[in-house]
């Protein structure tokens, strides 16, 4: 049985002090516990240490994620962050391959694959994103496109514990646009992702890998996604920037 997951991607929002307030608000909203749901927050890199301290001091079950990483251990890579640096501030997850990283910064499937390997070598769980553009969706090639992404992003990975790797399906056309894939749309692609993972890692491992939906997920529509067999939770953007709305999604996943 896969544990559900609600992960909040804060993107480039919240100053250090604002991040502290938001983290404390989430802790307070979820003070009664999160049941059998893994809850993750991903603040900007400069906020990681502060948020980590809030979570630690509260003895919270909420886990810390970074939004990006570089695959080298150290060196002359100005502006980048190594896996060991994330590890040292308490990050146990890291988002990779987000469409904004792919689109704005030219990241490739090869880059995502390298990042996954580097993270897993440090015991940090990748939340590896995939998804199609509106053009590809309208051409009816969205499943084929995402399947190829999954194959490239997981090439050469060794997964023995399926809880240590997470996939997030995020149709690009539904991110920050107000448009949302239907629950059936999400199931179609998430089901294809799981089938592909089974072909790569075997059915037993694939059955345990969480596949999240991302793309304008919010309290009003989360239940529809959670009802689908192959949707195990959500990677939340805008709705994760308010403690009450994010907590409401966690509570929906708990039911």
From TrEMBL:
SUPFAM superfamilies: Triosephosphate isomerase (TIM)
Subcellular location: Cytoplasm
Record keywords, A-Z: Cytoplasm, Gluconeogenesis, Glycolysis, Isomerase
Stored Pfam families: TIM
Gene3D superfamilies referenced in this protein's UniProt entry, alphabetically: Aldolase class I (3.20.20.70)
Alphabetical GO biological process terms: gluconeogenesis; glyceraldehyde-3-phosphate biosynthetic process; glycerol catabolic process; glycolytic process
Reaction it catalyzes: D-glyceraldehyde 3-phosphate = dihydroxyacetone phosphate
Subunit: Homodimer.
Entry protein name: Triosephosphate isomerase
Gene source species: Lancefieldella rimae (strain ATCC 49626 / DSM 7090 / CCUG 31168 / NBRC 15546 / VPI D140H-11A)
């Amino acid at each position: 049985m896969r544990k559900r997951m609600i992960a909040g991607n804060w993107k480039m929002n919240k100053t250090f002090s604002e991040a502290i307030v938001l983290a404390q608000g989430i802790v307070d909203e979820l003070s009664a516990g999160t049941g059998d749901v893994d809850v993750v927050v991903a603040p900007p890199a400069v906020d990681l240490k502060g948020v980590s301290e809030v979570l630690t001091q509260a003895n919270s079950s909420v886990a810390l994620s970074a939004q990006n990483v570089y695959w080298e251990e150290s060196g002359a890579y100005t502006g980048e962050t190594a896996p060991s640096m994330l590890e040292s501030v308490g990050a146990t997850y890291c988002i990779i391959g987000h469409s904004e990283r792919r689109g704005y910064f030219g990241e490739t499937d090869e880059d995502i694959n390298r990042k996954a390997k580097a993270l897993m070598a440090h015991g940090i769980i990748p939340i590896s994103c995939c998804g199609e553009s509106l053009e590809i969706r309208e051409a009816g090639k969205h499943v084929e496109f995402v399947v190829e992404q999954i194959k490239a992003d997981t090439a050469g990975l060794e997964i023995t514990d399926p809880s240590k790797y997470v996939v997030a399906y995020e149709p690009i056309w539904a991110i920050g646009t107000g448009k949302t894939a239907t629950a059936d749309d999400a199931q179609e692609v998430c089901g294809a992702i799981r089938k592909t993972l089974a072909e790569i890692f075997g059915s037993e491992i694939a059955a345990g890998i969480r596949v999240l939906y991302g793309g304008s997920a919010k309290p009003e529509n989360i239940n529809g996604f959670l009802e689908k067999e192959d949707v195990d939770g959500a990677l939340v953007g805008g709705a994760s920037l308010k403690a009450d709305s994010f907590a409401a999604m966690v509570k929906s996943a708990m039911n």
